Fold this protein.
Amino acid sequence: MALDIQIFYALNSLAGQSHLLDGLIIFLAVYLAYVTIIALLGVVFYSNYSKQEKWEVLIVAGLAGIVARFGVVEIIRFFYHHPRPFTALPSVHALITDSAWSFPSGHATFFFALATAVYLYNKKWGIGFFTAATLISLGRVIAGVHYPSDILGGAIIGAVVAWVTVWTARQIVEKQHQTS
């Protein structure tokens, strides 16, 4: 059995053990995403950054997540069709389902892009967002909708897209400062 599937089964074995644990897994896999977005808005809104810096962080982080998730992920999924674990493997405890292809994880891609962008602006905040991205991603493996390789692929794609997005934004801002 491939290492990816072995790790998947080890994590997925946590599902179906208790209603309380299943509820926590579903919260991590589905609802923590919403909490993370609200947290980003709150952290930026209440920061000491200038109004322009606040908008820059929000726009760049959001753009990185959107380009990574709805651009790169969809292009990959158009050409590469990897079925979800709950449809491809026997004995999967599927706490949630999804009809899209599995690789790369759209959630991991989006939230690791967001976390990377935030980290490149503010390391302290970034660690918190990386923690949230990791918990969301682990929740989705435990819930039976992703393999660990889906998460790893999404995390790498998200981080690279965010780095490019932040670098591009900083070049634009620098050129604006030079012309004014």
